Amino acid sequence: MTVRQDVHSAGIPVLCQSCEARHRGVCGALDPDQLVGLAKISSKHTIEPGVELIGDAETVDSYSNVLSGVVKLTKSLSDGRQQIVGLQFAPDFLGRPFKVESAINAEAATAVSLCSFPRASIERMMRESPELEHRLLKQTLNELDEARDWMVTLGRKTAAEKVASFLDPTLDPATNATSFELPLTRADIADFLGLTIETVSRQLTRLRTDGLIRIENNRHVTVTSLTRLAGRSGA
Amino acid sequence: MTVRQDVHSAGIPVLCQSCEARHRGVCGALDPDQLVGLAKISSKHTIEPGVELIGDAETVDSYSNVLSGVVKLTKSLSDGRQQIVGLQFAPDFLGRPFKVESAINAEAATAVSLCSFPRASIERMMRESPELEHRLLKQTLNELDEARDWMVTLGRKTAAEKVASFLDPTLDPATNATSFELPLTRADIADFLGLTIETVSRQLTRLRTDGLIRIENNRHVTVTSLTRLAGRSGA
DNA sequence: CCAATGCCTTGATTTCGGTCAAAGCCCTTG
DNA sequence: CAAGGGCTTTGACCGAAATCAAGGCATTGG
């Protein structure tokens, strides 16, 4: 898992008047004249954890920037088995251009704030501004790289390696912080890694008893031996 | 797995003089004037199965269109465990724009023919032609959709469902053909599905003894009961 | 304060798929 | 034709993770 805070950092920060938030999402790709128009049609939303943002096979009529919080993208089989196929952080763009029907579910994993734009406006701007498409291409390529790394984890790693792979990139190497809040419940981590809750729980206790991590309040994790943890993430 | 023959079909067919092949790959996105230039710098290559096209952590100096055959994209762990993370068919674009180092391996799974372009030329054209970027965005979004479906298979399906999921979309619904050549060896199918060769083999024999498929010469598969097969692919 | 609820942990048992080992089949090559 | 090698199949066994089942520990609300 990767907490992206640096993507799009080249974008121009913009005040979306209607959502009253400075952010660097999709707006940042546009030139100031266009931005004024976009600002007027955008709207800010605050969303509780657990709320469904986009339903499977549902028509999508808007795109959003994630301003804060974590959005999980999931896919389910008919019998209820579920797999998380993506996590989106600020300032990611949320939505699938060029397709009216969504094939995935998007749900707030934590409290989430979004800045939304009507579908038609974004699509018009995409036609008019190659910069916007360029930015979108870059995000999509990054998501594809991420998905492919993840496929190795899902297909070829053991439960221990999977859990370590989940914890490992969650630590931000930039801030050098070894302590953080898990953005997901055990159930979500299980759906992320293709495991059961019980296996996730057991692996975390094992890391705890082996002295590699400390866990407080079920959510706050401190990694005490990063090198040894990295060794378990499967190179 | 999806055999894509229809992507980019909106592209203008172009004669790449130097590779002497009419194809609809990346060229199709460009206007005729640009195409003349591109044709002059492109070159056609025919590649034997098993040959490595792009090595992990290798600098990539060219992009290609797949003209025929199947290219497998793989990622490996340090101890040799391997996962196929993508398959590319004609007329897919092969290469990762905006990144000099490749994080994946590309290898010819069958005999492959490619039309290659120097990296610099494509990047220049990408800056000049929004059409090219648009086409690339669309392919990337499709690959991302594919990767996410695949993640459900890797993370949540049983061995039987995985093998059925592999066979199912291989049948082209357009041609209604229930008979086809497997483009991959058992080992490749295993690396595709996150299984071992033995498990793949056992699942195929089971489908055979259950009368759902017939296999000739190890490679030629005929699906005799499509509906029952679909039921095993996990909805 | 005491249920009640949601989330997490722990234990006992089962099972699916992996591992190890041996053979079969097909195609090439001498 | 025989030998060899690559790929595939099959069998016996094992083990990692799933399943089934309790129980713990917070927070919430009557």
Task: Say what oligomer this is.
Answer: homodimer
Structurally, how many domains make up the residues of chain A?
Answer: 2
- Percent of residues in helices of chain A comes to 25-40%
Indicate the mean pLDDT of chain A.
83
CATH-derived topology of the largest domain in chain A: Jelly Rolls
The interface involving the most residues is between:
A-B, 41 and 41 residues
* Biggest pleated sheet of chain A: 4 strands, antiparallel
- How many β strands of chain A by DSSP? 13
Total helices of chain A: the number is 7
Task: State which percent range the strand residues of chain A make up.
Answer: 15-25%
Describe, in plain words, how this protein is organized in 3D.
- Two copies of one chain form a homodimer.
- With 235 residues, chain A is of the alpha+beta class.
- Chain A has seven helices and 13 strands.
- In chain A, the strands form four sheets. A four-stranded antiparallel β-sheet of chain A has the order 3-10-5-8.
- In chain A, strand 12 and strand 13 form a beta hairpin.
- Chain A starts with 13 loop residues before the first strand and ends with a helix.
- Chain A binds chain B through residues 73, 75, 77-79, 81-83, 85-86, 96-99, 103-104, 130, 133-134, 136-138, 140-141, 143-145, 147-152, 154-157, 193-194, 234-235, and chain B through 73, 75, 77-79, 81-83, 85-86, 96-99, 103-104, 130, 133-134, 136-138, 140-141, 143-145, 147-152, 154-157, 193-194, 234-235.
- The structure holds a DNA duplex (30 and 30 nucleotides).
